[in-house]
Write a structure and sequence with these properties.
By secondary structure, this protein is α+β, with helices and mostly antiparallel strands. It has 2 domains: 7-122 and 278-304, no CATH class; 133-274, Nucleotidyltransferase, domain 5 (2-Layer Sandwich), CATH 3.30.420.10. It is built from 10 helices and 10 strands. Helix 3 (78-90) crosses helix 5 (108-121), helix 3 (78-90) packs across helix 9 (280-288) and helix 4 packs across helix 5. The longest helix has 17 residues, at 237-253. The protein is elongated. The model is unreliable at 294-305 (pLDDT under 50). The structure holds zinc ion (ZN). Zinc ion is lined by residues 35, 37-38, 40, 54, 56, 59, 61. Residues 35, 37-38, 40, 54, 56, 59, 61 line the site of zinc ion.
Length: 305
């Protein structure tokens, strides 16, 4: 793929729907287009160039490359989808629908829709277990009080409308975030085991919930209440830094996020953090690689195997 030094160059290159469509076809299928309904590659391109016909007797459906992707059935031109994907996959903090609307010259409603759909693509679909030295922490997200560290909260009732997020980050590596229902030992233990490789050096605060894990992990603790934030290698500065990013992103740009949508915002922030070393073009193509309506398409594929 051509390298783009700016949004302007990108926009000049993908200036027609046809160019976008052909690029999407190449990214999605390579040389072998596949039917999104039955996954067969026995398909032919129809004369208008845009649509394909499945040749399987039981299927015989027609489709274009956007069927089964986030851009299926929308009237928004692909040029605007592409531009929105490029902007959103590269902007370190995400942007508001209002801003996106003015950049793309679309209504705010359309921009909101694009923002939500594209956010689904900014997700690591198959994260590996974290290893090495991993900092583990939990925090409340939503509203002002949430900026305090969990260990400093005094009145649990204040946090009724907040959502608890669990996070784990490798030093110099990747982060994962998960909404958890509470900070009981069960919730924390499950979150750690599902996201961090056993035997890993794990650094946490002194939350009692983590104590049970000492047989499975090499566990080091940081005592926040005694101001021991940095004690040699045993610190949680990396995850604290990520929480700051996440909260800025959510608080500064989206104003309020319901707990229903919060996991998606967390996934988006994690995805950006985890792909920060990628070049702009690669970020765009890597996001584009997630454009398929994931479940639906994968279910179809798995039937075939
Ligand atoms: Zn088919």
């Amino acid at each position: 793929m051509k390298e783009f030094k700016s949004i302007l160059e990108f926009q000049k290159h993908f200036n027609t729907d046809e160019k976008c469509r052909l690029f999407l076809e190449e990214q999605r299928w390579g040389d072998t287009p596949a039917c999104p309904f039955c996954a067969s590659t026995n398909v032919k391109r129809l004369k208008n160039g845009k649509r394909f016909q499945c040749n399987e007797k039981e299927c015989r459906k027609q489709f274009s490359v956007t069927v089964g992707t986030v851009a299926e059935n929308t009237k928004i031109p692909l040029t605007k989808w592409f531009l929105a994907m490029y902007i959103l996959s590269n902007h370190s903090k995400g942007i508001s629908s209002l801003q996106l609307a003015s950049w793309l010259d679309v209504t705010q409603k359309t921009a909101w829709f694009l923002n939500h759909r594209i956010r689904q693509m900014l997700t690591d679909n198959a994260p590996e277990l974290l290893s090495g030295i991993v900092e583990v922490d939990e925090t409340y997200v939503g509203g002002r009080v949430s900026n305090k560290h969990v260990s400093k909260r005094k009145d649990a009732a204040k946090f009724d409308n907040k959502t608890m997020v669990f996070g784990a980050v490798e030093r110099e590596g990747k982060v994962v975030t998960k909404i958890i229902p509470n900070t009981t030992t069960d919730s924390l233990v499950t979150a750690v085991i599902e996201n961090v490789e056993q035997g890993t050096v794990m650094i946490t605060d002194e939350h009692v919930g983590y104590r049970q894990l000492k047989k499975l992990y090499k566990h080091a603790k940081v005592n926040h209440s005694k101001q021991q934030y940095v004690k040699g290698a045993a610190h949680t500065n990396t995850i604290e830094g990520f929480w700051n990013l996440l909260k800025k992103q959510i608080g500064g740009i989206h104003h309020s996020v319901s707990s229903k949508h919060l996991q998606r915002y967390c996934d988006e922030a994690s995805y950006r953090y985890n792909n920060k070393q990628l070049a702009q073009d690669t970020r765009f193509t890597s996001a584009l690689g997630n454009c398929e309506g994931r479940l639906k398409y994968k279910q179809l594929i798995s039937k075939q195997q």
